[in-house]
């Protein structure tokens, strides 16, 4: 999760988030190089009295500054499209969980089990235990197996919500009457926090999401105890 004065992204936990971090660094380096070149040219124009007489109307220069931006855009677009297709691809999920947004809590249903569903409310500040995080802890965590492809079906029963977990690279809108889906896979166990990322009313800030990614044998024990 994020820590105070953090400048970058949260640590990547899923392969998709790792790809997003690499793409961010790739694009940021291109922007940095372009900004440095433009700043250098502006400083030269402001400090140098001499100008080349044939520079302003040279066809070669116009050709370069037309083709070069197109090449840069292609270098940005190709990896971006690759990640978009990776995020949209769902191959034989091992588990399906349906998430419904309400004002102002989340409800979860494990559709592969006959009667495994629960609501997840934020724990009030006055009821927090030592070490728990304010505005982020919930009474019922979503327990999921790690290193397995999990499909999340996301919708809403009232207004627009958004189910987002930054460290997993997830952000999917919950829209009434529409069923959106996304996939997640964690490469390591742990607790991963998120929040509703769509302004949904007065208690929008109090809809945390907590995923507990555990080994498969622990998940099977938990699911058996919940039935």
UniProtKB/TrEMBL annotation:
Binds a copper A center. It is a multi-pass membrane protein. The chain crosses the membrane at residues 27-46, 66-85. GO terms for biological process: ATP synthesis coupled electron transport. Its cofactor is Cu cation. Residues 92-225 form the Cytochrome oxidase subunit II copper A binding domain. One of its GO terms (cellular component) is mitochondrial inner membrane. InterPro entries: CcO_II, CcO_II-like_C, CcO_II_C, Copper_CuA, Cupredoxin, Cyt_c_oxidase_su2, Cyt_c_oxidase_su2_TM_dom, Cyt_c_oxidase_su2_TM_sf. GO terms for molecular function: copper ion binding; cytochrome-c oxidase activity; oxidoreductase activity. PANTHER family: CYTOCHROME C OXIDASE SUBUNIT 2 (PTHR22888:SF9), CYTOCHROME C OXIDASE, SUBUNIT II (PTHR22888). Belongs to the cytochrome c oxidase subunit 2 family. Component of the cytochrome c oxidase, the last enzyme in the mitochondrial electron transport chain which drives oxidative phosphorylation. The respiratory chain contains 3 multisubunit complexes succinate dehydrogenase (complex II, CII), ubiquinol-cytochrome c oxidoreductase (cytochrome b-c1 complex, complex III, CIII) and cytochrome c oxidase (complex IV, CIV), that cooperate to transfer electrons derived from NADH and succinate to molecular oxygen, creating an electrochemical gradient over the inner membrane that drives transmembrane transport and the ATP synthase. This is Cytochrome c oxidase subunit 2.
